[in-house]
Amino acid sequence: MAATEITALIASSLATFLQIYFALLIIRILLSWFPNIDWSSAPFSVLSQLTDPYLNIFRSIIPPLGGIDFSPILAIFLLQFLQQAVTGIAV
């Protein structure tokens, strides 16, 4: 296997991971609109444990304004940028 093939394989795998993580992040953001969700119950706690560390980075940069958390917007933009960059390497 040539070095370029290995690089393409790694980049492709990383791009797939970022796509899956992006989907989980969108689900987490959409579910946050429902205040009655118990984030300590089984499916939601796993989702929270997977996505909150990434979102907390941006929550420390952009505090909620008027009770609205705008940090997921920045988190999505950065994740999309990374996904596009990795996809460009994979091609």
UniProtKB/TrEMBL annotation:
Domain of life of the source: Bacteria
TM region positions: 6-31
Keyword Transmembrane assigned: yes
A Pfam family hit: CCB3_YggT
A GO CC annotation given for this chain: membrane
Keywords noted in UniProt: Membrane, Transmembrane, Transmembrane helix
Listed InterPro entries: CCB3/YggT
Coiled coil location: none
Protein family according to the UniProt entry: Belongs to the YggT family.
Protein name: YGGT family protein
Keyword Transmembrane helix among record annotations: yes
